[in-house]
Structure formats: C-alpha cells, structure tokens
Amino acid sequence: MAPKNPRIIALFDVDGTLTAARKTATAEMLARLQKLRQSITIGVVGGSDLVKQKEQLGEDGQARGRDGASGQSGEPLAASILLTCCCCCCASLQNLKSQYTNAQINRLVNYILRYVADLDIPVKRGTFLEFRMGMINVSPIGRNCSQEERDEFEKYDHIHKIRETFVEKLRAEFPEYNLTFSIGGQISFDVFPTVRIAVTVSIVLTSATDENDSVVLRVQGWDKTFCLRYLDPKDYDEIHFFGDKTHKGGNDYEIYTSERTIGHSVKNPEETIQILDQLFP
C-alpha cells in the first residue's frame, strides 16, 4: 500500500536509533515503523551491510510482531518495511594501498598501536585495529570485549572522550594523510582517506522484498550523505533524518547537518518513537 504522503521521507540510522547497539529491533519499534510507512516513505541509512541491517530489523524472524505474527502479507515485519539506502563502503584494502605507501600505512598502524598501549582505561581486550573494506577500524578497548564491557566502555567514553581525543591526536599527527575519522557504534571509530573514490552500494527503492527491486549503483563518497543523491528533490518535499551519532566526528553528522535534511538527534530508540509520535501521530 502506498503511503498517504509519499513526498515526505524519513531516513533512519540503525544502531542507537532503531535498535540498541548490535541488537534486533523491538516489536514496539517494528510496529511503529509499520504504522509510519502508511503515512510517509521510510528508509534506513546504515553503515553495516544490507544482510546485517535486515537481520537487526527482524527479517531473520527474531523480531516480529508483538504476538509473534508476521506483517500483513505474511512476511516478517522488517521485510515489509525495509527501504534501504545502504552506505557501507565496499572498497577493498587495495584502495588504501593505492592512496598510501606501505611505509605510510605502517607508520599509521604503529602510532595507533603505541597510543592504545599507553592508554589508561579500565579494560582492554584483543583486536584493537582491524583492516576493513577501504578503511581501518580502531577500538581502544578492543573488539574482543563482551557486550557488558562494550556497554561500560560506551559510558566511560561518553564521560572521558577517549575516542574523540584519540581522533584529535591522529588528526594532528597525520595532517598530510588527508584522513577522515568517523566515530560510530559503542567502542570504535573508522579511519579512511578523504579522497573520493568509487564505492558500490545497494539501494532498495521500494518496500517490496523481491530481489529484482534492488539495484546496484556506482557512487562517489564515503559518508551517509551520498544516499541523498538518489532522492531527487523533485520527488520529495521533506527529508527527515534520525540518528544518534550526530555530533561532529560522529558517522551521522554529515547527513544530520545537510541542508537537504531535517535532522533529529536521538539518544535511543525510545526517543525515536517519541519524536515520531509528535511528528507523525
């Protein structure tokens, strides 16, 4: 069923906005999104790949209706609401190597590891640095931490600005590298070249679940604002964005502050629902 006001679209970050970090959406959230899509167009703009986003929004069957039921057409609720502009950067490590010499990469890696070694925080676990698709992910506590340790670090970081300070040190130490830093999630931040290179993204432009409705496009850029290039101003009167990492350096900042969006900063999924109830009762 087409929304009543298709010229209004609401875009949502996932972790911290629609779901608790790394968790699946609650039945309450899925029901609220189901109601919302009857009024306006909705979409998800996340840093994870499409499979992970569908998993968090319940397509695996873990997060369905309040009574365990599926959506009206029989599929899981998430499958019936998912309209995704997935902004994961599917560039390879080769892109980092094409931008920097091995000596430059080694210098950056060594600095990060030394900084972590000297960092005085309550808990450290393994995997402090991880090469990903076209970027380096840095975690001061280490990605091997438990969920409980992850939650505690997030609180500690909020007070002591561990990641924010780390980023500022890197920015000051490597100005010639022309790096971009994006703080997201609970425990880490991404480091990648500011140079604009082509990345492949999947953009689902309907609420259907048929794979034929998906298209793969080549776009330029790294942050979430590139999805706006595929939302024609002629088609939309209002573009709302909801995210929790909207501060400068957060991975929602660029799209939150874009002149094309109406930004809504939230602290958790519960606040997302509260704002939706006010804007789209």
From TrEMBL:
Primary location recorded for the protein, binned into one broad class: cytoplasm
GO biological process, one term: mannose metabolic process
GO molecular function: metal ion binding; phosphomannomutase activity
Reaction catalysis annotation: alpha-D-mannose 1-phosphate = D-mannose 6-phosphate
One Pfam short name: PMM
Gene3D superfamilies assigned: 3.30.1240.20, HAD superfamily/HAD-like
InterPro entries membership: HAD-like_sf (IPR036412), HAD_sf (IPR023214), PMM (IPR005002), PMM_cap (IPR043169)
Pathway: Nucleotide-sugar biosynthesis; GDP-alpha-D-mannose biosynthesis; alpha-D-mannose 1-phosphate from D-fructose 6-phosphate: step 2/2
Source species, domain of life: Eukaryota
Keywords (A to Z) from UniProt: Cytoplasm, Isomerase, Magnesium, Metal-binding
EC annotation from Swiss-Prot or TrEMBL: 5.4.2.8
Cofactor entry: Mg(2+)
Subcellular location: Cytoplasm
Active site: 13, 15
PANTHER family hit by this protein: PHOSPHOMANNOMUTASE
Assembly, per entry: Homodimer.
Family: Belongs to the eukaryotic PMM family.
Task of the protein: Involved in the synthesis of the GDP-mannose and dolichol-phosphate-mannose required for a number of critical mannosyl transfer reactions.
Protein name as it appears in the record: Phosphomannomutase
Lineage: Eukaryota, Sar, Stramenopiles, Oomycota, Peronosporomycetes
